[in-house]
């Protein structure tokens, strides 16, 4: 049975589902979910991510986290963690770049949080020189200093959508139309305490999004960092606060309708970094300013790194390297759309490339 058929039956039985439940089924259904069945990332997949564009991305993030480790007195046992490591490319580049740093690899407990068995297999291959272990949930992160990276992880987390109705909110749901096709509908208006702050910047009929799970994941990471030390670099597509529907589907590098071909397209949303920053603060963890990816990478020295990689190259490899540098940093490419938020203990300096 296709995922579409599974969803039709579920909706016929239980009624319309939240956008969050729909996203969860499409992305992570154990047998038919997008991440559980496809290896979607990369030039031949449905979308390409920063670490797949160039090794420079992972190298610079690795050095930034290693610097944070040094700034905090080189704790002798710590977790180096990644959320949603994809093909394992980012972590492999981070580890290669930090190999020469005395004590860093010896002290680390390498932990990966990944839901998809297919992705876990790719990560095991990419990281076979190290000894990673996989965790099912962020709650399983060890109680140690935590140095963590997450690139394009939060944009895959399920979120709910609400339309303002007076001072209440009607939830947008996925149901069935008269032809048994998936269709959006609206639930009855209810009070939503988590959206109290959105009564300030919305009007009747506006759509807002809220990811409870993004908030809970951030709280857990922030608790570890506030208690034991560490730092997190969260890189994603989004801004401080979004307004309107940001749910989008991507299939073979082209936009698709999120309700078409469930389970066969990547679904993402813009990340509201405000929610993450609030969750961190609630745990007594400090956060940096939200910084455009291009600015962050320039501050970390991406141009010097590109020049040194370029030195022995000419022809197509050189052209490709210049294009990759531009793609990661230029404001009209990923440089401005992607943002970086750092988390750190209140007593520690912000990670390199970021400002308090
Ligand atoms: N960070 C990688 C991959 C981004 S794609 C890169 O930059 O290339 C999102 C990744 O998060 C995939 O590995 C996917 O399987 C994983 N993922 C998505 N939702 C998840 C969840 N709820 N729990 C754990 N992993 C998840």
Summarize the structure in words.
The longest helix is centred in the first third of the chain and has 17 residues, at 55-71. The chain is an alpha/beta fold and 356 residues long. It has helices at residues 3-14, 19-28, 34-37, 50-53, 55-71, 89-97, 104-107, 117-126, 212-228, 273-282, 293-299, 302-310, 315-329, 334-337, and strands spanning 17-18, 78-83, 108-113, 133-135, 146-151, 160-165, 168-176, 182-190, 207-210, 230-239, 248-251, 254-256, 266-268, 271-272, 285-287, 291-292, 338-345. It has 2 domains: 3-32 and 160-209, no CATH class; 35-158 and 211-293 and 331-345, 3-Layer(aba) Sandwich (Rossmann fold), CATH 3.40.50.150. The chain has 14 helices and 17 strands. The strands form 3 sheets. Strands 2, 3, 4, 5, 10, 14, 15, 16 and 17 form a 9-stranded mixed sheet that branches. Strands 1, 6, 7, 8 and 9 form a 5-stranded antiparallel sheet that branches. A 3-stranded antiparallel sheet has the order 12-11-13. α5 (55-71) packs across α6, α9 (212-228) packs across α10 (273-282) and α12 runs antiparallel to α13 (315-329). The chain starts with a helix and ends in an 11-residue tail after the last strand. The chain is globular and about 65 Å long. S-adenosyl-L-homocysteine (SAH) binds at residues 27, 35, 41, 49, 51-52, 84-86, 90, 113-116, 119, 151-153, 156-157. S-adenosyl-L-homocysteine binds at residues 27, 35, 41, 49, 51-52, 84-86, 90, 113-116, 119, 151-153, 156-157.
